[in-house]
Design brief:
Strand content: 15-25%
Shape: elongated
CATH class of the largest domain: Alpha Beta
Strand order of the largest sheet: 3-2-1-4-5-8
CATH architecture of the largest domain: 3-Layer(aba) Sandwich
Helix content: 25-40%
Number of domains: 2
Structural class: alpha/beta
């Protein structure tokens, strides 16, 4: 039975105990309503593939499970197995070092990204099986790319039956299997006593909430962390010269031309003259902040005059009038007064005490002088 028309895709991790695959498929099949898989993918190593092929295919365990519980026949082919390549381009035999770990993490991440791009697919991931680092990567990839309808599980089995080479799922008819005890002796078990529980694990879904670009697992985590650190509290800051407005998220603030010109100068300083352009995020850096003496020079006024002209529809006479009025540059006192006025406008219209420190012109004491700038992230600024 399918839910809401999704194509059900199961993704498993496998090491030396392929039982977790059939145990999970069984647990899904006996749910109410049952979930029957359309596609199966097994993320493993070359050794893990060998360990699963013989019982699942060679001994017909998958076919028996499907027939007994009315499931569609499950076809396992080479394309069902996802195995990372080692440093020489060969299938990875086992995870032995940090590089092997990262190769596995990158494969898991890229595969989850690709499958989650199809809205008609519902993903069911099982964390049981494989190395512990594989479980970590799969869970983390689900956080990055999982949608609301995707599911993450861990299968729990009665201890005597867990990893037992003779137990793959709970058959409808009771069977007797042997259990090896630590002292080497054998114990007879009845499958009717086995319990298989599929625990659904909650996870934070960041898919479509972060703007993640192509990269390996490590790069995606770094990018996602930076997005979280800024996106959760900082909406877009946009300056529209033709409308003479500043917008912070949904708040629209009308500003007089000279104040808008000065405010834009601080934004351009951050976006166009950053001392660390290789850094994607500003965080607490204020090295782009200017002193009022820096901003009061003739050269600084000439740079600002371009925006002043744009505010008036690219009227060149407005630019000339500004430069004529302040022949030596705008005086620090006039700059200070206009900064105070634009901050007052933003404060009155924004009405959010948490955001104010990021969107008003702030001052810091630095190099023996007061320096001014805007703390909002440079990636959140748009000047139109």
């Amino acid at each position: 039975m399918k839910s809401k028309g999704y194509r059900e895709v199961c993704i498993f991790l496998a090491g030396s105990t392929p039982q977790v695959i059939t145990e999970t498929l069984y647990a899904l099949a006996v749910k109410d309503p049952p979930i029957f898989t359309d596609e199966i993918y097994i993320i493993t190593t070359a050794k893990g593939k060998q360990a699963s092929e013989d019982p699942l295919i060679g001994k017909g365990v998958l076919d028996n499970l499907a027939e007994e519980y009315g499931m569609p026949r499950i076809n396992l082919t080479d394309s069902s197995y996802l195995i990372p390549a080692d440093g020489f381009g060969n299938p990875l035999q086992d995870i032995r070092d940090e590089q092997d770990n990262e190769r596995m993490g990158d494969l898991i991440t890229e595969f989850l990204r690709e499958r989650s791009s199809d809205p008609a697919v519902r993903i069911h991931c099982s964390l049981a099986g494989g190395r512990k680092t594989m479980s970590f990567y799969l869970g983390a990839a689900m956080q990055l790319f999982g949608r609301p309808w995707d599911r993450l599980y861990h299968v729990l089995v009665t201890p005597e039956f867990e990893s037992n080479p003779g137990f793959f799922y709970k058959p409808k008819e009771d069977k007797v299997i042997e259990c090896r005890l630590p002292d080497g002796s054998a114990r007879t078990l009845h499958t009717r006593d086995a319990e298989i529980c599929l625990a659904e694990l909650p996870f934070i879904r960041l898919s479509r909430k972060l703007s993640l670009h192509i990269g390996n697992f490590r790069q995606l985590v770094a990018e996602g962390q930076g997005e979280i650190e800024t996106a959760t509290i900082q909406p877009w800051l946009k300056v529209n010269h033709s409308d003479r407005t500043i917008s912070v998220g949904d708040s629209l603030i009308e500003v007089v031309p000279v104040q808008l010109m000065i405010f834009t100068a601080f934004l351009r300083q951050k976006t166009e003259h950053c001392k660390y352009p290789e850094r994607p995020y500003c965080l607490d850096c204020t090295d782009c902040f200017l002193s009022l003496n820096d901003l009061s020079s003739r050269a600084a006024l000439e740079a600002m005059a371009g925006d002043y002209s744009r505010i008036y529809g690219n009227d060149p006479f407005r630019r000339e009038d500004l430069l004529e009025k302040w022949k030596e540059g705008m005086e620090p006192q006039a700059l200070r007064q206009n900064i105070s006025k634009v901050n007052k406008e933003i404060k009155e219209h924004l009405g959010n005490e948490v955001l104010l420190p990021y969107y008003t012109v702030a001052s810091v004491r630095k190099y023996g002088d007061s320096r001014y700038g805007v703390r909002v992230e440079k990636g959140k600024i748009r000047i139109e």
